[in-house]
Design brief:
alpha/beta, 3-stranded antiparallel sheet, 16 strands, about 25% helix
Amino acid sequence: MDAAEKRVHAFVRVKPTADFAQDIIKFGPDKKSIDIYIKKDARKGVVNNRQTDWSFRLDGVLHNISQELAYEMVAQKLVADALIGYNGTIMCYGQTGAGKTYTMTGATAEYKHRGIIPRAIQQVFKAAAHSVDPFFTVRISYLEIYNETLCDLLSTTTSNGTSDTQMAVVDCPQGVYVKGLSIHSVSNEEDALNLLFEGETNRVIAEHALNRNSSRSHCIFTIYIESRFRVFSNIKCINSKINLIDLAGSERLSKTGSEGQVLKEATYINKSLSFLEQIVVALADPKREHIPFRQSKLTHVLKDSLGGNCNTVLVANICGEAVHVEETSTGA
């Protein structure tokens, strides 16, 4: 793959709403740009230098489209590349309640509403079924980062809910791995989906003003692929992994009404998302020599999954109502 193909791809997905702010949010005719305009607040006085308009160039705007089409645009090629040895990372981020978990995991009520993770699992096992390679293995892990603490969503827990193993992010010559994280072999799509649903039931959620079931943690669902095949008299081995990441919602504390434990969680969430933003900006700067991956557990875990020889896709989930337009401009 050439350098142009290896750059970070960015998409915006707009949550469906009957109150879409069409006078404030405009999409380009090619559905690859978005412009946002906010009127100046007269109450702030005549001298008001606050930014009122933003323009973003993207790889695609996902507005009023199905889960199937969203997957085809965002994930299908990345998963196909992973099957031939290229690591891939997809991250959904944005304001809480904007549809990140729906995009990544989907809704269980209807099959057509399943999200990126179950569709990626399906694509991997379809490829395995058609492979002439007798040695094709798939493994799964599900990591949660809650208040800067690593949690294994698929581990056997003790009665008080704490993990048996102390977990830590470890650097090694082969890359980064999480010590103590369980990795499970799966032989078919159903087994992999069962692990996904088991992990989902263990996620930390809370209720606040913007979302009754707000994810309070970053979750990384990883599919590890290993295949071996014969090239003449030699055996060639390919290893790759796909990180599918549902980031906790960014939020303005004044809007969510957070207090107590939920306020503490929000502070950790916003801080780690800020560090992630710094990493993405640093990776885009060719003159930057040092990338501060160790600023947070999230960025450290993703050290070998962002930039370099890894396919990376960012999906900014936004709300289209006028009341949320400030978060929309920062999310995009």
